[in-house]
Amino acid sequence: MATRYPAQFFDGQTAASRDVAVELLVDAIIITDDRKQIARWTYSGLDAATPVRSGQPLRLKHKINPTSRLIVPAGFSETQILSRAPHLKGGFDPASALKFTAVVASGLILFAATGYALLNLAPQKVAAVMPAEWRDRLADQAERTFIKDAKQCTDAAGTRALSALAGRVAAASSDTPDFSVRVFDMPFINAFALPGGRIVVTGKLIKAADSPEEVAGVIAHELGHTAHLHPEASLIRAIGLQLLVNVATGGTSNDTLGGFAGLLAILQYSRNAEREADDYAVSLMTKGAIDPKGLRHFFEKLSKKEWKLLTGNLETLSDMLSTHPGTQERIEFIKPLPPGKAKQVIPDGIWKQLKKICS
After folding, report:
1. DSSP 108-154
2. Is 139 in the same domain as 281?
3. In terms of domains, do 135 and 87 share one?
4. Sheet with strand 28-33: strands edge to edge
């Protein structure tokens, strides 16, 4: 028969205490009044109502009835109780610590899994809810990383011509997203879209173009990337949560983009993304009566590798930056408009001015 020890019990309903006896079993304390059981408290559910101090009574409560109290006088059974419920003494409790660690680990795993799914499997959904100021910061940092000290081409007549051509493309559809186009004097032929609707075109591309339809086609293609949020999605996929944290806190380009090598990876869109941009460009140009043959001609030049860099030591870099691979499949997809359907993009005189934008 278990030994019974005297104690006091408050039921939490009245202020009066009751003289009771406690029996210490292997897994629980039995509280009795005149040998009638009034409560059974497991050791695992016990908590100290006041800090445990040596030589002081134990003031206990239990999770099954947090308002009740059991006061065990010092010198009777507190040693046995504390040996079976060591967590009452505070400090490190291996069982509690293990449980806490398991809960934290489970939370971290769930957070990581959710983050991976959002950032890698659905980056465009994340990009769609990205605040406008974040997009602008991303564009600023990407532009600084890529353009560095390149000079913007700002010839007055050429700039007006660029605005006329960009306006012609924008007017092709009422659904055209907001965008801006700037030309930089860089030693290779390319164009790319940045977050927030910014499109960058190199002066070498305009100089090498044979017609305004080619430049219009390139801008329409980049608008396809913009409309589908490809720049933002690529940044999110490539750099992930760290990118968003840095952007939110105003991180620098070195912190966020990881340097020029990171930007190169970002500019390499998937085949599906390029196909989406092609589809958008052809649809937009068709609506605006701009002959898509210009875009087709652009891809044909790339596929034949007719455009070369003036600086030989940057040739490898140019290949890496070729974000518009001219595959035969993409070329064949682009069909010219029927005769008489296409309208002039910009007058010949304005086209000549655009050609000299970097003069």
Report:
1. HHHHHHHHHIIIII-HHHHHHT--HHHHHHHHHHHHHHHHTTPEE--
2. yes
3. no
4. 36-42, 28-33, 18-24, 4-10, 65-72, 58-62, 46-48
Check: pTM over 0.85? Answer yes or no.
Answer: no
**Boundary residue ending a domain (91, 117, 139):** 91
Same domain for 227 and 296 = yes
Task: Tell me how many domains the chain contains.
Answer: 2
* Residue 122 resides in a domain: no
Rounded Cα gap, residues 176 and 224, in angstroms: 9
Residue written as token pair 């070498």:
204
E strands present in the chain: 4-10, 18-24, 28-33, 36-42, 46-48, 58-62, 65-72, 151-152, 180-185, 191-194, 198-202
Encode pLDDT of 247-288 as tens digits: 555 554 445 455 544 455 555 677 788 889 999 999 999 999
Whether residues 244 and 330 fall in one domain: yes
